[in-house]
Specification:
The structure holds two protein chains of two kinds.
Chain A lengths: L2 H30 L15 H14 L1 H6 L1 H21 L9 H30 L1 H6 L2 H22 L5 H12 L10 H16 L7 H4 L4 H4 L12 H9 L1
Chain B lengths: L34 H6 L10 H15 L1 H9 L11 H6 L6 H16 L1 H5 L1 H4 L6 H10 L8 H5 L6 H14 L5 H12 L8 H19 L14 E4 L10 H15 L3 E2 L17 H17 L4 E4 L3 H15 L13 E2 H10 L15 E3 L3 H6 L8 H13 L30 H7 L1 H14 L3 E4 L2 H10 L10 E3 H8 L7
Parallel strand pairs in B: 1-2, 1-3, 3-4, 5-6, 6-7
The chains are: A mainly alpha, B mainly alpha.
């Protein structure tokens, strides 16, 4: 096994472990912190199924963001939805034979890469040109966008400009899945692409990318508006009651 | 009125997002609570030597106690959606009044001491060391948030700056940096029973005065009872209702509604205050202690129902938190929700045809309605989401002929705070209050210009007090602001139904 293949293989297993353990740990922290008070932002659904519907609108349509700012919504929503299509398309590199559904979205997935890029560039532009957003941006906010732009650009380059040996790539990725390591094509664009993806996976659990699990744990969005009908009491608040 | 040394913002023809003016409100901070008032609430009197350790320890404790805080400090992506949503930012241009920047004051320290990225790459992720300057910034800017939750409507993750502000104030209290206005008032509630420090005998006196006034006005004996054991309804209302204009006209209205519907009611001298300032300072313990008075009064007076008067944050604590803090209320009549808002009571009576009105009594008024922030975004009325917008408007339309809503992006869930909520209704923050009122004044000006509106109705003691003070700064008459139940009071035909 070549040095490059070894490095990337170790990197990918490491990144996967960090991503899974890190996000699981954070979800555990979110889930185990109690929400002692009913704080849904109202008007809020009065039933559990209403809350599920609200959260679905939030994560699929970005409803609140749409209310807030049409430009951020346009760029943000385009980027995220395109990203899901691209991610789904990439599943083909981890299965053989390729599932029917994944084959079906292949054409969308290919062009969605441009959607990702347009969304990201729009968000990056706003971060630079809108004074208020520039004020709240830390270096990591720009770098995060650049990292994902890098992933999108290298991906598009391999698809549309400088083809990589995709059969060999798939052999390598399938090898990762089945712990049967195959040589990785030593194509510089591919190397940048994969290293960036691994880096993104590693920083996911220690960065603002935690908004992904976070939105599901947000009490203003996931609580049912029924405080008069049903008494809501967290464990630590219940302890206060037994004290008197 | 002594005009303060600041410029009242100009009302533009169309709302504008201001250019940022760094540090323009850095000087704004409320008086710090004296040691004795801090200690009444179980907080230290002054900044201890080891305050840094205490701040970090307290932050760690709160992160474990409040999921909201943990999730909100981790989840912000700095997308900027909230940056033009805060009335204090719109009125001052100070970038630290953008909700995300306000949260970042706390988040930067959270990152530095609680996250991997902040511990090892602070510059990269905007993490900062906890210093006295940071602490002073907290004190200043977490007292420029009225906990109105407008930002939380527009955040894609529902991040609620109110939660962050409450946590920050709780941390500040824990190191002796409490705010004078809030903490003195909570002390008064414990000692005397209400925010204004109005003792029992004075309360009885006031209520008797109201009975005479209504008798003179209408010839009808409407009762304004205090501490009547066995009444059906315990009315808990903001203490401003007991004597100050325009609040008291609302209280007169509640009494007339109860009288006409034949509902026996009473206020309690023990719980003669609906407001719960424990929420403003983020202190669950104090909020619970203040809320327990209502339970105690309900038990002592053997009432069947609890009704809350016109008060915004009070209604939030009552509607959303009372059952949690002081429940269960299984000893009350299960036919009624606990608690009920006075608007729900009046609305229900109107629906059932129990009240008669002469709407022309309000014909001199051209009315608009200000949705109070905490009623709009932190509570509900009736059995439908959004009832908090529908019910008050239906009551107004039942008692008056001329009603005009303000621009849609400034009402309902998008309503602007009056500028004085969340424990900021104090003269030492007058500049902030005037500037924070700007977006509401802007929307008001539009309906004044377009529809000759001359009356602004609110259902919150803070809104009413705040507008009484700030309307004149924007060249509106002070008496433009009124209680919703003052309209009911004007129009109700006493003695026409049995």
């Amino acid at each position: 096994m070549s040095l490059i293949t070894t490095i990337y293989t170790v990197l990918f297993y490491f990144a996967t472990a960090i991503l899974i353990v890190g996000v699981a740990r954070k979800i555990y922290i979110f889930a185990s912190a109690p929400a002692p008070l009913k704080i849904p932002t109202t008007p809020a659904p009065t039933t559990r199924s209403g809350v599920v519907y609200r959260l679905l609108r939030e994560v699929i349509l970005f409803e609140s963001l749409f209310k807030s700012n049409k430009w951020i919504w346009l760029f943000g929503w385009t980027f995220h939805m395109a990203m899901w299509a691209v991610l789904a398309r990439h599943l083909r590199y981890f299965m053989e034979p390729v599932a029917g559904l994944i084959t079906l979205i292949q054409p969308i997935g290919i062009y969605a890469g441009f959607g990702m890029l347009i969304g990201l560039i729009g968000l990056f532009g706003r971060r630079i040109f809108v004074e208020r957003i520039r004020y709240i941006s830390a270096p990591s906010d720009y770098l995060m966008l650049l990292l994902i732009i890098g992933i999108a650009v290298t991906g598009l380059l391999m698809k549309f400009v400088e083809h990589t040996d995709i059969v060999a790539v798939k052999a390598y990725t399938l090898g990762l899945v089945y712990f049967d390591i195959q040589p990785m094509p030593e194509d510089p664009i591919l190397m940048v692409h994969l290293a960036s993806v691994a880096l993104l996976m590693i920083i996911f659990p220690i960065s603002k990318l935690l908004h992904a699990p976070g939105v599901f744990f947000s009490p203003t969005r996931n609580q049912v508006d029924n405080p008069r009908e049903q008494r809501h009491l967290s464990p630590w608040a219940a302890q206060l009651e037994s004290k008197n | 009125m002594a005009k303060a040394e600041f410029e009242t913002p100009e009302l533009k023809e169309f709302p504008e997002i201001p250019a940022i003016q760094v540090g323009s409100m850095a000087h704004s901070k409320p008086f710090i609570a004296k040691a004795e008032f801090q200690e009444d609430l179980g907080f230290p009197g002054e900044l201890p030597d080891d305050w840094k350790d205490k701040v970090i320890a307290k932050m760690g404790e709160l992160l474990k106690k409040y999921r909201s805080l943990q999730v909100y400090l981790d989840s912000c992506v700095k997308c900027g959606a909230c940056t033009d949503k805060c009335h204090y930012f719109l009125g001052t241009g100070d970038p630290k009044n953008m909700p995300v920047a306000r949260q970042d004051l706390l988040r930067a320290v959270y990152r530095r001491y609680f996250t991997f990225a902040g511990k090892y790459f602070p510059k990269l992720v905007g993490a900062v060391d906890l210093t006295k300057e940071v602490l002073d910034d907290w004190y200043s800017y977490f007292h420029q948030c009225s906990q109105c939750r407008r930002c939380s409507v527009f955040c894609p993750y529902g991040i609620d700056t109110a939660e962050v502000s409450m946590a920050a104030r709780e941390i500040l209290d824990s190191i002796g940096m409490g705010q004078k206005y809030c903490n003195e008032i909570i002390g008064k509630v414990y000692k005397i029973g209400n925010n204004l420090g109005l003792p029992g005998p004075a309360l009885i006196d006031t209520m008797e005065g109201l009975e005479e006034e209504v008798k003179d006005d209408t010839g009808i004996d409407v009762k304004y009872p205090v501490d009547v054991v066995g009444a059906d309804v315990l009315l808990v209302t903001p203490s401003a209702d007991f004597f100050a204009e325009p609040h008291v006209d609302g209280l007169i209205g509640y009494g007339k509604v109860f009288h006409q519907a034949g509902i026996s009611w009473t206020v309690s001298s023990h719980a003669s205050e609906a407001a719960n300032f424990g929420m403003f300072i983020g202190s669950y313990d104090n909020m619970r202690k203040v809320a327990m008075r209502i339970r105690e009064a309900a038990i002592e007076l053997k009432v069947k129902r609890i009704v809350i008067g016109e008060c915004g944050h009070a209604w939030r604590v009552a509607y959303s938190f009372l059952n949690t803090l002081a429940g269960p209320f299984d000893f009350l009549d299960p036919k009624y929700p606990v608690p009920q808002h006075i608007v729900e009571v009046t609305h229900d009576l109107i629906q059932r045809g129990a009240l008669n009105f002469d709407k022309s009594a309000n014909d001199h008024l051209r009315i608009t309605f200000h949705d109070s922030c905490n009623v709009a975004r932190a509570s509900r009325m009736g059995n439908m989401p959004g009832g908090q917008f529908k019910l008050p408007r239906e009551v107004i339309k039942a008692v008056a002929n001329n009603f005009f809503d303000m621009a849609p992006e400034t009402i309902h869930e998008s309503t602007f705070c009056c500028g004085g909520g969340g424990g900021l209704l104090t003269d030492d923050l007058m500049e902030l209050r005037v500037k924070g009122a700007m977006p509401r004044m802007q929307a008001l000006k539009q309906v004044v210009d377009d529809h000759d509106v001359n009356h602004l109705v609110a259902i919150c003691a803070i809104c009413k007090s705040q507008f009484s003070k700030t309307l004149p700064y924007y060249n509106f008459p002070m008496h433009m602001i009124g209680s919703l139940h003052a309209l009911v009071s004007n129009a109700i035909q006493l003695g026409t139904k049995e």
